[in-house]
Amino acid sequence: MNNQISNSTSNQNGWGPNLWPPFTQIASSPPPQRVIKGSGAMLYLENCDPLIDAISSWWVTLHGHSHPYIGNAISQQAKDLEQVIFADFVHPQAEKLANRLSDLTGLQRLFFSDNGSTAVEVALKIACQFWHNQGKPRNQIIAFNGAYHGDTFGAMALGERNLFSKPFENMLFPVKRIPWPSTWWGDENFEDHEQIALNELEIALGTPTAALVLEPLVQGAGGMAMVRPAFLKQIESLVRQSETLLIADEVLTGFGRCGSLFAFEQADIKPDLISLSKGLTGGFLPLGVTMSSEEIYQAFVGENPELTLWHGHSFTANPLGCAAANASLDLLTESPDSYLNFESRHLKHLKELSENPKIKKVRLKGTIAAFEVNGSEESGYLNPSGKIIKEVAKSHGVFLRPLGQVIYLMPPLCITESELKKCYSAIHLGLEKL
Ligand SMILES: Cc1ncc(COP(=O)(O)O)c(C=O)c1O
User: Fold this and answer.
1) Fold held by 81-334
2) What are the tens digits of pLDDT across the range 178-200?
3) Which CATH class is domain 2-17+25-67+341-432?
4) I need a surface site. Which of 1, 7, 66, 372 has the fewest CB within 10 A?
5) Per residue, what are the HEC states of the chain?
């Protein structure tokens, strides 16, 4: 009986009897649409008009869907070597990727995992074990209000406690939390907010701290909440004074998303550990990496087995993922203008949009443009205004996925001028419906 009920509920809502989708309440969500092809910024649907993927399919699609250069690199690699155990063996694509990312991040060591959450988990475990290996264990971790670092338990503990983490609250380790002084166009109080955060951080760092973790420049799932590079610089200086490790979660912000190859570059800071995923493979395949300084790595080297980082995944350094990542880096290196100049492409549209009296807190960083809907009585993920705008935009050929009252665009780098214009027109139309 129960089976029948659940089958009919899931069928009614279009997911069929076997699928269980992420981040979706089946009972109240519209049915999914079947995608049969992706090309550039476009998604082609079965029996429906195509849609512009204005959020890069959960922020992963960097150069566009089915980019032939990356597709060919994966296909070629599949003919040579599809997978090999990455203990006892190494392979050329992994070596090449490690060399390149070491050069680009300034951190010598690369540890592979499978996705953004695991790239953060690994950074956290490395940071904690770094202190443990030296016989100076430190237990405190510092993170920010509004943070999101993934859905595995460690990453979830780092993130803000919210609707997503509620059922597990008692099982999450404590984290010292600091305000995130997000800012926007016309914000006059940013300095006060930054100072409050820095004061709180200074007090928190009075307790020996293993690591501070942050999303440099933009908190993504927390609502595209942007801080000034200068704030990150001040954080770094406090963190250095207490010899705390600095972890940059660049899972979202990396690979040009913020207008530089990595967001930390704009703040002129040097993290000890960097987590990367999403755009790493151009959005083609799941892969995560954690970059670490040589100094940290050396704390794990020695005859004593207890010094070892006893962590790994079956698909560590999957050759197909590494080939995709190397191909994506080729594209980024060949045309840096695609991300360096993206902000100016948003600017003219966003300026016009910012005059709409229905919106507030307009902000822009690289490829990410965001604002909030005015007068939203309930803020947060469940705010209904985003849903309305999403539906209207979809009926005009644009796929958005607002975060509650926060509406944002984060298109693939390849989006054309006319497609980008269409995204903004769709938002204007959505706002008219509110
Ligand atoms: C900053 C950040 N860290 C970590 C994650 C988790 O990545 P994944 O979904 O690949 O596990 C995300 C996902 O959105 C993210 O935005």
Assistant:
1) Aspartate Aminotransferase; domain 2 (3.40.640)
2) 999 999 999 999 999 999 999 99
3) alpha beta
4) 1
5) CHHHHHHHHHHHCCCCCCCCCCCCCHHHCCCCCCEEEEEECEEEECCCCCEEECCHHHHCCCCCECCHHHHHHHHHHHHHCCCCCCCCCCCHHHHHHHHHHHHHHCCCEEEEECCHHHHHHHHHHHHHHHHHHCCCCCCEEEEECCCCCCCCHHHHHHCCCCCCCHHHHHHCCCCEEECCCCECCCCCCHHHHHHHHHHHHHHHCCCCEEEEEECCCEECCCCCEECCHHHHHHHHHHHHHCCCEEEEECCCCCCCCCCCCCHHHHHCCCCCEEEECHHHHCCCCCCEEEEECHHHHHCCCCCCHHHCCCCCCCCCCCHHHHHHHHHHHHHHHHCCHHHHCHHHHHHHHHHHHHCCCCEEEEEEECCEEEEEECCCCCCCCCCCHHHHHHHHHHHCCEECCCECCEEEECCCCCCCHHHHHHHHHHHHHHHHCC
